[in-house]
Amino acid sequence: MLNQSAAAVGGPGKTQEEDAAGLAQEFVRFAVESGVLRFGEFKTKAGRMSPYFFNAGLFDDGAKLGRLAQFYARALVASGIQFDMVFGPAYKGIPLAATVAVELARLGRNVPFAYNRKEAKDHGEGGQLVGAPLAGRVLIIDDVMSAGTAARESIALIRAAGATPHAMAIALDRQEKATEAGRDVEHSAVQYVRDVLGLQVCAIATLADLLLYLSASGGDAQMHQHRDRVLAYRQRYGVNDGPGA
Does 43 participate in catalysis according to the annotation? Predict the structure, then answer.
C-alpha cells in the first residue's frame, strides 16, 4: 500500500495541502511550457468553446512522458489512496499506466499493471486484457474526464474480471458541468465518478490551480488575458467546489 509521508513528496516542514498545491502549480507550469496545455478557442466534446485545451497525447517524448509519470506518482503518494494495481484504458491510458507503474516502482512501490484492447484478440493469448490479471483494488489511470464514459467502461471490465474498481487518477480536473442527453447537469464527470460510481479520484491539478497559475504570472498581460477568459468560462460552466470537485 502507498503510505509514504507527504514530506517524502514535497519536502520537510510542509503540510500535505501545501505539498499538493505546490505540486499542482509545478504541473501546470510544466504542461504550459510543454505545449500540452494551450490557450485559444477549442471545441469540447460537449460542443462548448473552451479558452483552453489539455492534450496529454502531446507528452510525446521520453523526457516529457517520464516527468508526467513522476507527477502522477507524487500526487498518488500525497493522496494516500490505497490500491493493489493500476489499469490503463485504451488508448491514452496505456502508456500512462505503464510509465506510472515504473515510477511507483522507483519510489519503492512495485505494483502490477494491465490495460485493455479496443477489440478482443482472437489469436495468440487472445482476449481483451493485456498484462497482469485484474485483481484486488484497481486504480484506473487516464488523462482527463469529460463525460466519465471511459471510467464506466473500465469499471465494467474490472468488475467482469472479478476485481474491484477502487480509484481513478487523472492529470487535470476541468471542474465543469457534465452533459447528459445534450443538456448541462450540475455535477462534473469527476463528481459523478466519485459520488455516484463510488471511486476515489486523484487529480494532479484542477481548473482552480490553472486559474491560480495564470493569476500569479506577474505582469504578463497575455497570461492575464487568458485568465480572464478561463475565469469567464468557469463562471458559466463550472461546478460548485467540493471534495474532489
Answer: no
